Amino acid sequence: MLARADALPLAGDPVREPLWPQAVTQSLLERCDLTRTADTGKAEPAQPPLQVTPELMAFYRNHAHDLRAEAIRNAQTAVWSFLARIVRQR
Fold first, then answer.
1. How far is it, in rounded angstroms, from Cα 10 to Cα 45?
2. Number of structural domains the chain divides into
3. I need a surface site. Which of 3, 13, 76, 86 has the fewest CB within 10 A?
4. Considering Cα of 19, then 21, then 22, then 26, what sign does the dihedral take?
5. Is residue 46 a contact partner of residue 35, using CB atoms and an 8 Å limit?
6. Of the candidates 6, 70, 63, the residue with the CA atom closest to the CA atom of residue 32
7. Which range of residues forms the domain containing residue 27?
8. Is 36 in contact with 2 (CB distance < 8 Å)?
9. Would you state the pLDDT for residue 89?
């Protein structure tokens, strides 16, 4: 369950100062903007979620493949450099 930002615990009982500045609290409230549906009363996000399209999935799949290939190339280069350094030391 999401808590409202003004209902969050406060630091320092005697002083009752908030944990976050007002600007941060306001941005938290904006990000947690929920509306209740009329029929069920269930909390729903005010804005619809982003749609995951096949094109978006293909983009991230290709990007992940490129990152993985680069990591493998870097690891191979590191191993060969290490082995070359060992051979040169003899």
1. 26
2. 2
3. 13
4. negative
5. yes
6. 6
7. 5-45
8. no
9. 84
Over the stretch 57-71, which tens digit does the pLDDT of each residue have? Answer: 999 999 999 999 999
Identify whether the C-beta of residue 4 lies closer than 8 Å to the C-beta of residue 28: no
Q: Which amino acid is at 48?
A: P
- Contact between 45 and 33 under an 8 Å Cβ cutoff? The reply is yes
Dist CA 80 CA 86 (whole Å): 10
Per-residue pLDDT tens for 8-49? 555 554 455 556 556 655 555 565 656 666 676 666 666 666
Q: How far apart are CA 4 and CA 12, in angstroms?
A: 19
Report the amino acid identity of residue 28: L
Domain identity same for 55 and 19: no
Amino acid at 56: L
Q: Residue 64 has what pLDDT?
A: 97
Integer Cα distance of 42 and 35 in angstroms = 8
